[in-house]
Amino acid sequence: MAVGYLVTVVLAVLIVVFCLVRIRGPQPLFYFSYRLGLVFNEIPHVALYALVVSTALAFSEGDIATTADRVSVGVAAVAAAGLVVVTLRGVRTASVVRAALDDAFGAGTGRRRRPPLARILLRPVFRRRHDVRRVGNLSYGDGGRRNLLDVYHHRSRPEGGSVLIHFHGGHYDQGRKNTQSLPLLYRLAGQGWVCISANYRLRPDFPHPAHLIDAKKVIAWAREHAAEYGAAPEASVFVSGSSAGGHMAAQAALTPNEPSYQPGFEEADTSVTGAIALNGFLAEYFDGDPATSPVNLVRADAPPFLIAHGDLDELVDTENPRALVAALRSVSTSPVAYVELPGGHHAFDLFHSFRFEALIDGIEDFAAWVTARKKSA
User: Fold this and answer.
1) pLDDT in tens, 265-318
2) Once rounded to an integer, what is the mean pLDDT over residues 214-233?
3) Among this protein's residues, is 376 annotated catalytic?
4) Does residue 102 have an active-site annotation?
5) Which of 106, 77, 86 is nearest to 39 (CA)?
6) Residue 289 catalytic?
7) Of 63, 136, 195, 311, which shows the fewest CB atoms inside 10 Å?
8) Confidence of residue 1 (pLDDT cuts 50, 70, 90)
9) Alpha-carbon distance 8 to 315, whole Å?
């Protein structure tokens, strides 16, 4: 029996299962499934490449000689079909995003685009662009390395760009800037946006509201300094976040210019033009204080929201973002787009995948609609 080939086939089968099914078993199984799904649910074609190459090598080297070997090939064929199914679920995202935008903002808001096939299929993990410069580790507060941010801007520094601020996830006790949503930051920066990715203070040393105060400081910093990198003087400022960062973004968007969250910079403008929550945890903070839930912070003058969540998210059930969507739609005068991503797991924003590239298209369309409304107001 070709043991090496068998190991490859078994691993491919596990990848398919963990991508297609939400696993919530014992901790070791959950951790293993979560990590495999984190990568291969977004770039299943990489596993398919490995499986095809491994099968070809097994045949060329004469390793497929027994009945057991031939059974392994059959199982590999089934796994390959499963990986194709995972890929097609990602491809479906584009139509789901367009439908959600059209429903929230009017027919024609979501534009049809061709996915960047070469980048997705051949370079999914390479996020950098030659036309974008990253200015790293700029200080925005007195929290040391936890109060540093990175700026991404077009090398030509065109004037008049909008601003996107992103906050990383990590359960509020881990994580760092320049790890999440980089395809989004580089895409927008390549189109003249000024994008900011920021660290923030973490629990348990710094519980709520330290994170929210840091988010407000970043917004204030952007309003003061983003023009130095090409943003318009009165630029639209969008705030976004992944997982816990989505919670931060939603809180910040729903508490504009709140003095209690702006100690020492109470006069700074911390309002935002729009908010984007990706696989966000959008309920009460760890202390259970109802005032920390974005659901309880909704207001009539809330900015437009775009909330995107995977229907197979292992860490945050879809009922969580749906509750905020319902609350916003019942109170806010601004529209809310909710995109439930078919087959999406947690942390779908790490790679240039069919799913995330389609969502980035939607974020561009969302921002264009919001900015146009702002100009016409």
Assistant:
1) 999 999 999 999 999 999 998 888 898 999 999 999 999 999 999 999 999 999
2) 96
3) no
4) no
5) 86
6) no
7) 136
8) low
9) 28
